Amino acid sequence: MSKLLNYYLKLFIFNIDDSSYERLEEKKKSILLHLFFYLFFLSMGVFLFSNFYKKTYNTALFNGTALLAGGLTFWLLKKKKSSVAPAFLFVFIISAISTYFFLTGGYNKSGVAFALMLPLPVILILGKERGIIALALFFLSNTLAYYFFQNEPWCPHYNFSLICRLSIVFLFISVIAFANEFIFEVLYTRLEKLSTSLRISQQKYKDLAINKEKFLSIISHDLSDHVGSFMAISSLLNEQYDELPKEERMKLIKNMAIVSKNNYKLLHDLLTWSTVQMDHIPYSPKPFKLEKIYREVIELFNPLLEEKQLSIFLKMKSNSELFADYHMASAILRNLVSNAIKFSQPGGEIRISAKEREDMMVISVSDRGVGMSKEALMRFNSSLSFSEPGTMQEPGTGIGLILTKEFVQKNEGRIYIDSTPGKGTKVSFTLPLVE
User: Fold this and answer.
1) For 352, phi and psi rounded to 5 degrees?
2) Distance separating alpha carbons of residues 249 and 237, to the nearest angstrom
3) In whole angstroms, what is the distance from residue 388 CA to residue 342 CA?
4) Which positions ≥6 away from 334 have C-beta within 8 Å?
5) pLDDT by residue (tens digit) across 270-292?
6) pTM here?
7) Inter-CA distances, 1 with 7, 8, 21, 140, 198, Å
8) Which of 347, 387, 381, 386 is CA-nearest to residue 367?
9) Can you tell me whether residue 309 is helix, strand or coil?
10) What is the DSSP letter of 433?
């Protein structure tokens, strides 16, 4: 019997279209509102039948009007797919019925019980704050109405003891309904936090899977190329050292040094990138000015700039302080300036500009070099590694721009590239300003 009752109750309550409501709390209120409407129609139908049976046509007229108003409100709920207006109208209708029963029904009639059960639907439908306000207004209006109409012949005479008992029952049911809603909100808040935590964890696992693929791609492609070059040169020296001219041997040894240095840089970048993915690099934002990083970068790359006879300019339209991780910001600018030098033609120029845009600083590094192909841009946007030799055959690790992108995102910024093959590249990124 219990299982059968549970089955039909679930079928009755949850067979409601709540797809229009996104939040769980709204879905709950929609289901309860439907349930209370069904119970309302059932109870009003019984009341009407009783009124006609007892020939109390005045009460039947009032109940019929209330039933019609309830039907129109239910139609509004179904039509508009919104529970706010129907909820307030429903509460108004049952409050009016309760007031009518209280002022005309008498303490020995079943209508008074209808008024006492009012707190349950009011608080569950309107919520704690609105429900308490609505019940307070209902209690105050009924008290005043009884005070003014108690001497009318149609108004029953309640003694003080009965009014106290009715008030205590009314308050008791209100507290129960309020506690139920409070407990639901507490549990719902905990459920929301748990759901958010699960979504974050799920996203982290997805990111780990994607990063694992990136890592394997970098190792299988870039690292194998670098190690392969070193192995080919070392094998050639080992097998043909005596046959090779001294100049050729020195050239090969120099190439081995360049390749080994580049291998070390690639391994260092891979280690840094993997550390970023595991959130092991400390993120410590603090105020600083861009000029300080600019001077450090120029000092670092001055030999390369002189070697390629490149000019570099800084154009700042703002002297505001940035609020970001200093070491990450420095690494971002170093990588971008390094790429600009690498792909610039000898005698060219590099420009660094900075300007404010709302609460962010937009920093751009542009060159007039070889530019990027559509394939390279696609690989950058998809966070895949790629490496191309520079204008003087300078090698790269293939992971510099990926690290740059990660550091920008870590500092709540954005990065985008505008590049045309043969005309140059402009890389812009944003970093937060000091508030």
Assistant:
1) -115, 125
2) 7
3) 10
4) 297, 300
5) 666 666 655 556 778 889 888 88
6) 0.45
7) 10, 11, 33, 44, 38
8) 347
9) coil
10) B
